[in-house]
Design a protein that fits this description.
Blueprint: E1 27-31, E2 38-42, E3 55-59, E4 61-63, E5 67-72, E6 78-86, E7 91-97, E8 107-110, E9 115-122, E10 128-134, H1 138-145, E11 171-174, H2 186-194, E12 198-204, E13 227-231, H3 233-244, E14 249-252, H4 254-263, E15 273-277, E16 292-296, H5 303-312, H6 314-326, E17 337-340
Parallel strand pairs: 1-17, 3-12, 3-14, 4-11, 14-16
Antiparallel strand pairs: 1-2, 5-6, 5-8, 6-7, 7-10, 8-9, 9-10, 12-13, 13-15, 16-17
Helix pairs in contact: 5-6
């Protein structure tokens, strides 16, 4: 497959710069794989598509203020460091700008010296290892100095950082939000529970690799960045029980899909586990655990659009996106969503 096979035209004005207010007021384009029909709905209608015995799988990762702005010592050059993955108490895998002007051994200061970093080796994925020194607890320093790592296509300043967190975010560690979950409110989640439907948390700490552009001409030549996942015994038990009782596994976001498809066996049974995954779901991959997917609209030629194409078919996915463009849906992280039945 060619990466260009997953391209579509998107007018820039359809890229959402701010989230819907309230969260559940976003539009939702519903696509039924069985009939090929679409519906235009509002996200607060989402619970009406759930059935008894269904289970909702959500990613409870929490975004860290991973964007650090500093100065290179000796030259005063502005430096941006984006934290991707913690390696130990002081070392992180990161992305740095300007990378070419930050050689190994370069020192960077943040917050007038409250945090210092030494630029280290280049990783196989093109990032850099940075060793930090600080006093006290790193998380407290990061909360004071770091900024939310909004995607580069969002140009407006985020007034309230909690808008880039899901209401069920718990476990700190992501460099980007699992954005399909941003549409939920506590009240909507409670209305789902009131229907007798279990909401089961899994974990995938989202790295920038999920969102990095595919630079290879052939899709098969692209390598995914590793991300940490965890599925507890209780989560696996609830998901498997729903399947056994005739319910559907409804995944909220592509990160939940990638987590379940990492730990599911060929019969669809989900097993507990934790570790690193670099699963790349593209057309030709068979879904073992996912029955329904709620997701936002993704970038052209992205691995996430390839995942959607694997779920409903490439031509159907591109037709759905063309319909969304025609109907002026809002795209990407703060945009509207699509429910794939």
């Amino acid at each position: 497959m060619k990466t260009s096979d997953f391209y579509y035209e998107l007018p820039p004005e359809l890229i959402a710069q701010t989230p819907a207010q309230p969260r559940d007021a976003a539009r939702m384009l519903v696509y039924d794989r069985a009939t090929g029909k679409t519906e235009d709905r509002i996200f607060r209608d989402f619970p009406s598509y759930l059935r008894p015995n269904d289970v909702l799988v959500v990613n409870e990762t929490r975004v860290i203020p991973a964007r650090l702005l500093g100065i290179k010592e000796g030259s005063g050059i502005p430096v941006e460091v984006l934290l991707l993955k913690r390696l130990d108490a002081h070392r992180w895998e990161t992305l740095v700008k300007p990378g070419r002007r930050l050689r190994e051994g370069a020192e960077v200061t943040f917050g007038e010296g409250r945090l210092r970093g030494v630029i280290g080796q280049t990783t196989s994925a093109g990032g850099r290892i940075v060793t930090f020194t600080y006093e006290g607890v790193f998380e407290a320093v990061l909360d004071a100095l770091g900024q939310m790592p909004l995607p580069p296509y969002i140009h407006e300043r985020l007034e309230d950082p909690t808008q880039y967190q899901t209401v069920y975010a718990k476990q700190v560690g992501s460099a980007a939000a699992p954005t399909a979950g941003l549409h939920f409110t506590p009240e909507l989640l409670q209305s789902i529970r009131d229907r007798g439907i279990n909401i089961v948390p899994v974990l995938l700490h989202v790295g920038l690799g999920t969102f990095r552009p595919v630079k290879a001409e052939r899709v098969e030549d692209h390598t995914m960045h590793e991300e940490y996942y965890m599925v507890t015994e209780d989560a696996a038990r609830q998901i498997n029980r729903a399947r056994e009782s005739g319910g559907r596994i409804v995944c909220i976001g592509t990160t939940s899909v990638r987590t379940l498809e990492t730990v599911a066996d060929d019969t669809g049974v989900v097993h507990p586990g934790a570790g690193m995954t670099s699963i790349f779901i593209k057309p030709g991959v068979r879904f073992k655990a996912t029955d329904v997917l709620l997701t936002n609209f993704h970038l052209p030629e992205s691995t996430l659009l390839m995942l959607v194409s694997a779920f409903i078919g490439r031509e159907q996915a591109l037709a759905l996106y063309e319909e969304a463009v025609r109907k002026r849906y809002r795209f990407f992280s703060f945009g509207d969503c699509t429910l794939l039945l």
